[in-house]
């Protein structure tokens, strides 16, 4: 194991240092091979979520955590927390937009997560998710077929590198100016069905990729039971007969991505509608066989709010910005590097500063954009510095797992999630990547 740990650390350094994507892909395959030998498998959470609806178990919420920086260090911390708490169900995710501004393509992100699992001696399923595979409404209006093809290519790439959980976000296409809810949701459920069909066509043999839909764009009006029912009915109508649909549904209940930053740089309190969240989760489970509702934009909520997610039977909660904030605001994060990043933002993100906006608001809003350009600087910090920052965030992970009641669920996860070793075999079929699957070793 000592030798293997040494190899993994070298692979991680190479992933950060090398820009060439083809080289990163080769490193991913090497790490994947080691992972399989260690009993670590990229997996889909679909069967576990389906069982939650069918069997009626609950009382917990699965955390889905976006790692924008220090991915290897924070993934290691997450695996440590999961092992201490015998958790089983937790998701590593990265959104389409985050892949860009953090300079983490699917092959690198997937490799980092698996490398962290190997380093921490983890074994079992590892859930990696493409968060917010989002339709660009402007591009969709110009050429819907081209925009869908772009998303298909991203989905295919993600699945190739172990992302067996895909969240489709076509909620950007909801048009509230239309006269009926069905017309408002039409392009949303139609596009979600098309992308789900594509996923079912390319998913590895023996694996049902977990697919999520979304009925309300985060930061906009709160979702309603009528919208959920109309979306699901329309989705089922548009989905080809016999195909497996989605396993969860994202809703809007009052949050916004990153929170609302006040002039002094603090975050405004959010009035999250837990009654709506509970009602939509119940409808999703009982009427449509889904795991329940998914809450986005939750990491900056006050600490006392998190236990309510499990109480409301929320299926999944997405957490991102707070961990980024904890990196930047840690007393261990070098002041000189932070000043260097902020100076870069003043030049390279100047167009994003609005009239009347304070520097605190501007930096809070834009500093995520520096994580890619300064990835090597951050990962080049001394091990002791990164360990100290990761240690602070590990305590936050521990708190969240307990608040979300994600304790002693590993046996339940293992009951429903089978381990499948996937042998990749590419063949030309448009943007598709086709895989052959075989049983676990």
Structural class: alpha/beta
Q: What general form does the structure show? A: globular
Cα-based radius of gyration, to the nearest Å: 21 Å
Distance between the amino and carboxyl termini? 19 Å
Proportion of beta-strand residues: 5-15%
As for the number of domains, it is 1
Query: Quick check: average pLDDT?
Result: 91
Strand order of the largest sheet: 2-3-4-5-6-7-8-9
Helix content: 40-55%
CATH class: Alpha Beta
- Uncertain runs are 256-260, 425-441
- Per DSSP, the total helix count is 18
Order of helices and strands: HHEHEHEHHEHHEHEHEHEHEHHHHHHEE
Largest sheet: 8 strands, parallel, barrel
CATH topology: TIM Barrel
Extended strand count = 11
CATH superfamily: Aldolase class I
Task: Describe it.
The chain is an alpha/beta fold and 441 residues long. It contains 18 helices and 11 strands. The protein has helices at residues 2-17, 21-37, 46-55, 71-85, 96-101, 106-119, 137-142, 144-160, 181-202, 225-238, 274-288, 307-311, 321-329, 335-348, 359-366, 375-379, 383-403, 410-416, and strands at 40-43, 62-66, 91-95, 124-134, 165-169, 210-214, 248-251, 293-295, 316-319, 420-424, 435-439. The strands form 2 sheets. Strands 2-3-4-5-6-7-8-9 form an 8-stranded parallel beta barrel, surrounded by 6 helices. Helix 4 (71-85) packs across helix 6. The radius of gyration is 21 Å and the shape is globular. It starts with a helix and ends with a strand. Mean pLDDT is 91; it is low at 256-260 and 425-441.
